[in-house]
Specification:
This protein has 303 residues and is α+β, with helices and mostly antiparallel strands. It folds into 2 domains: 3-136, 2-Layer Sandwich (Phosphorylase Kinase, domain 1); 141-302, Aminoglycoside 3'-phosphotransferase, Chain: A, domain 2 (Alpha-Beta Complex), CATH 3.90.1200. Helix content is 34%, strand content 16%. The strands form 4 sheets. A 5-stranded antiparallel beta sheet has the order 3-4-5-7-6, sandwiched between helices. Helix 4 packs parallel to helix 9. The chain is globular and about 60 Å long. The protein starts with a strand and ends with a helix.
Length: 303
């Protein structure tokens, strides 16, 4: 991953100096964009000097290349961009756009959900200027590695379920990833959208020569996919948000933070990873929506 010259972590550095302070291929796009975004989002009639960057720390074990910036006033911001040399799946290539769009939608919602505040999205596919995203920083411990008592885990699960429920209240007219839906290119049925998603994953696997029973998988979608048409209302769904994307503040268990917004889709809320892979009693209770238990619903969840 990236390493940062330690001399810059001990003293304030100017915006221009920041250009040359990195190792590992980061370009000058990081330099001014962070502080310009901070300045733009805090502009008032009287504005104090923009604080300097005092610490830069890479956040590891993420799909993207992420840097945590800490300013001299104590605030922290996250700079995220595609990792150099990483091959992304088809549905992952627009993850930053999806995340920015969803965070913009949520910023206008009245709920108790805690999510990062979007400062800036810069989208570019040129060789010398990669897309990037700047958001506020959310602190907390990863739910997948946090040791909680049974009672505490139940509280957190319930709160996460409530977050998933609040997301599902965000409706659309078509199915698919939020960017396609926004641009009027969504799918008319959940079966079409889900088949597109699964087919893109299978094609990525074929491109990388991964050995899978492709014929059997595709035949199952043909023979069993009709049950997906039972989902008639596109709802915002945290499709790829798992325990690794839940941040828990042990001082306030009822307000866990959610990350991973690039993995959202307008579709069946019961397809959310948290509900499919770890549907605890507290999670289901917080989600509120009644779980249909007929054979077609069971088949849909298995798919």
């Amino acid at each position: 991953m990236l390493s940062v010259n330690q001399t810059y972590a001990k003293q304030p550095i100017s915006v221009k100096t920041l250009v040359h302070s990195f190792q590992g291929g980061l370009t000058s796009q990081i330099s001014a964009c962070l502080l310009e975004s901070v300045e733009h989002n805090t502009r008032e009639d009287w504005q104090p000097p923009v604080p300097a960057v005092t610490d830069i720390r890479p956040l590891r074990h993420h799909l993207h290349q992420i840097l945590l910036f800490t300013l001299s006033d104590g605030t922290s911001y996250v700079f995220k961009r595609p990792a150099i040399g990483t091959r992304y799946l088809r549905h992952e290539k627009i993850g930053l756009q999806v995340e920015a769009h969803v965070l913009t939608l949520l910023a206008n919602e009245q709920s108790n959900m805690i999510f990062p505040r979007l400062l800036k999205l810069h989208f570019s596919n040129t060789l010398y200027e990669m897309p990037y995203l700047i958001t506020s920083y959310l602190s907390g411990n990863n739910m997948a590695t946090t040791s909680l008592s049974i009672k505490e885990q139940r509280i957190v699960d319930y709160s996460v379920g409530r977050n998933l429920w609040h997301l599902s209240r965000k409706l659309a007219v078509t199915f698919g990833d939020p960017i396609k839906v926004r641009d009027g290119r969504g799918y008319s049925t959940w079966r079409e959208a889900f088949t597109w998603l699964m087919e893109s994953v299978l094609r990525d696997a074929e491109d990388l020569l991964v050995s899978l029973p492709f014929h059997i998988i595709r035949s199952l979608f043909v023979s069993r996919g009709e049950c997906l048409n039972d989902v008639t209302q596109p709802r915002l769904t945290a499709l790829l948000v798992g325990k690794r994307d839940i941040l828990v503040n042990e001082q306030c268990l009822k307000a866990p933070s959610m990350l991973g917004w690039g993995g959202t889709i307008y579709g069946d809320p019961w397809a959310a990873e948290m509900l499919v892979c770890s549907p605890s009693e507290g999670l289901l209770k917080g989600f509120l929506c009644p779980q249909v238990t007929d054979s077609r619903a069971d088949t849909r969840r298995l798919l």
